Amino acid sequence: MRKLFRPFFIQHRFFYACIGVVVVFVVSFIIPNLFNIAKLILLILLTFTVLDVLIIFLVKKGIEARRILPDKLSNGDQNPIQLSVSNYYTFPVFATIIDEVPEQFQIRDLEIQRKLPASSTQDLQYELRPTERGEYVFGRLNIYIGSFLGLVAKRYIFEDDVMVPTYPSFLQLKKYEMLAISNNLHQYGVKKIRRLGHTMEFEQIKEYVRGDDLRTINWKATAKKNQLMVNQYQDEKSQPVYSVIDKGRVMKMPFDELSLLDHAINASLVMSNVILRKQDRAGLFTFSKKVEDVVVAQRRNSQMNMILEALYNVYTDFYESDFSRLYTEIKRNITHRSLILLYTNFETMDGLNRQLAYLKGIAKNHLLVVIFFKNTELKKLIEQPAETIQQVYDKVIAEKFDFEKRLIVNELKKYGIYSILTTPEDLTIDTINKYLEIKARGLL
Fold it and tell me: Among residues 267, 78, 297, which one has the least CA distance to residue 173?
């Protein structure tokens, strides 16, 4: 009996009708002639309720639905979730769809209402934006079906406990991939860098055309061909580039619902793809109390999958980062001069000075780029007008911390260490810009 009534639900319209009947009965105490009318209305309500039950429940399988999920979700991006609902009733029905989304989203009011035409299939879609990596479990897909009477509803249950992993932002990866192949990265804000001189990576000898560098004329080939010939050079390839991600406590700060660590992970994924498209070797490792998640810099078909899996499995308790361990591991394991893209964060000069000796040690043998973040909340505080003494005090302190960020850039520059001071939202663009600048100037 309990199983029989489990899919049975009474809708709001039934209760509203019952309230109306009660009101008529109450008024009939004052106006006795209304008593018979109240009984007639009650009888009609019960008749329509029974009729509604028969209409909805006589069809054993009136609705079929399925949730179409992607293989994996992209962290920090809007991910489309598709629903396909088929109506096998011979009349239009009204559907209320409640999808049990993973608990990480904390969404308890996801409700979609649709009118489904008779014997038809409708495709629906909503979007979810995950803000942390890991496993996301979707629960049941509940659909409540009512007829045009709208007094009762029948619940259908589909799908149950489907797990989808959330990976670093591969949607950003796809956005930049084609642009990297076609050299059109400037469409998304990546600057065109003027090339200084040329590299020593010889490509071919070609006929001179107006605008070619006269210093590249090959006089021997010119004499043989009896026309001007020039040497053509290309960017040096197969240079090792490592993305090094600090996963210590300084990377726990949130921005746009993602931690700085997740912003760095998303940017590293895009950067690794751009590096490989530029024919260089991409590598990766993370560090906190120790160096982990190591992917040796290579240029092979499976390299991006290895980097993606390594970034997906980055976990941390946000301990204090040990830069001495980082220096030791780089000196021991990276024997060739490489480009090191270090994602970390420094809030004060004292924080930098504690680690400066290790950064200088790394920069002796490698080209080091320290990438750290502007505090956007401080920027907002500085731009707000101060009206009270307390607000003036807060604004002065905020300006002091903001000024220290710029001092950090100058301090690193004194020791030949390149730096990028950026906001989390511009992290990917600014990092690509710096990489292309280094390549164009032949600094590596």
Answer: 267
Instruction: Give 188's pLDDT tier (boundaries 50, 70, 90).
Output: very low
Q: Out of 3.30.1490.110, 2.40.30.110, 1.10.238.10, 2.60.40.10, select the CATH number for domain 63-167.
A: 2.60.40.10
List residues bridging with 64 in a β-sheet. 86
- Nearest residue to 401 via CA among 423, 376, 418: 376
Amino acid (one-letter) located at 76:
G
Query: Does position 220 have pLDDT exceeding 90, yes or no?
Result: no
Indicate the pairing of strand 229-234 with strand 258-259: unpaired
* Number of CB atoms found within 10 A of residue 171's CB: 16
Contacts of 185 (CB under 8 A, 6+ apart): 176, 179, 274, 432, 436
pTM for this prediction: 0.81
Q: Which residues of 42-77 are buried (b: 16+ CB within 10 A; e: fewer)?
A: beebeebbeebbebbeebeebbebeeebeebbbbbb
